[in-house]
Amino acid sequence: MNAQTKIVPGAPSAEARIARYDWGALAAELDGQGCAVLDALLTPEECRDIAALYPEEAHFRSHVVMARHGFGRGEYRYFRYPLPKLLGGLRAALYPRLAIVANDWNQRMGIGQRYPETHAAFIEQCHAAGQTRPTPLLLQYGPGDYNCLHQDLYGELAFPLQVAILLSEPGRDFTGGEFVLTEQRPRMQSRAEVVPLRQGDAVAFAVHNRPVQGTKGSYRVNLRHGVSRLRSGRRHTLGIIFHDAT
Ligand SMILES: O=C(O)CCC(=O)C(=O)O
Ligand SMILES: [Fe+2]
After folding, report:
1. C-alpha distances in angstroms, 44 versus 1, 104, 177, 205?
2. Is any atom of ligand 1 closer than 6 Å to the C-beta of 199?
3. 207 CA to middle of ligand 2, Å?
4. So what's the ipTM on this one?
5. Which domains does the chain have, with CATH numbers?
6. What phi and psi values does residue 89 have, to the nearest 5 degrees?
7. What's residue 183's pLDDT?
């Protein structure tokens, strides 16, 4: 199966799908919670087609067995360029919406960096900084597998938001395996958030830091994400990270 040809005629473009969401509400949710869900970004058929790419090595530049690195249990593969059309389209269409949030966050956190309007311009910056390898990935989990809490930072240059799309249906394809975010606040105990997702839903979330409004201005919190242990079945996820890797 070839994801390049798998956009069904009449299926909305990535741009049109992204435009359907209420980005004011999503940005408010990202500001308040550090994450926001985009319901039904992909159809069940698209989810199955993308998950079916997993064994097709030609699509990927590398394969990571998580237990070998202490990352958890399960495996993933990083796509190679050129990305499948739908994936590249989603990354380019999501970026400008999230860049508005990212620029606002940086301003509130007192970070000087601002992100350009288009993903193409941001990728040029990554490449100029020596970060040239694509980071979108396909993850695969089986019974007992889990993903340790982590941050997807791959070099100096990092876009502060990323997206994960659940390709399998909870309850039918797998049990357990919840998407988890933790937030470490200065001088406070950590907060955990479990994000309920259905097949085709996407979660946008902070990669590492985000500002939280306190009584005396904004302070910075530190986030990590991961996946709790699968109790049964098989779970696939598509991860969209906006910065390239060194
Ligand atoms: O499998 C998941 O839900 C999380 C995947 C992940 O860590 C990522 O997309 O960066
Ligand atoms: Fe991740």
Report:
1. 16, 34, 19, 22
2. no
3. 8
4. 0.99
5. 14-240 (2.60.120.620)
6. -65, -40
7. 96
